[in-house]
Amino acid sequence: MSLPDGQRRRDGYGDDAVWRIAAPMILSAATTPLLGMVDTAVVGHLDEPWYLGAVAAGTTIFTVLFMGLNFLRMGTTGLTAQAFGAGEGVAVRDALGRALLTAAALAVALIALQSLIIEAALGALGAGAQVSAFTREYFAVRIWSAPASLANFVVVGWLLGMQNARGPLTLTLATNFTNIVLDLVFVLLMGLRVRGVAFATVLAELVGLVVGLAFVRAELAALPGSWRPSALLDIGRYRRLFVISSNLLLRTLSLMLVFAFITAQGARMGDVILAANALLMNFQHLLSYALDGIAHAAEALTGKAVGERNVAGLVATVRRSLRWSVGLALVFTLAYAAGGGALIDVLTGIPEVRAAARAYLPWLVLSPLVSVWPFLYDGVFVGATRPREMRLVMMAAAFLVFLPTWYLARDLGNHALWLAFVLFMSARGLGMHLWFRRLLTRGAIP
Question: What distance, in Å, lies between the first and last C-alpha atoms of the chain?
Answer without folding.
Answer: 21
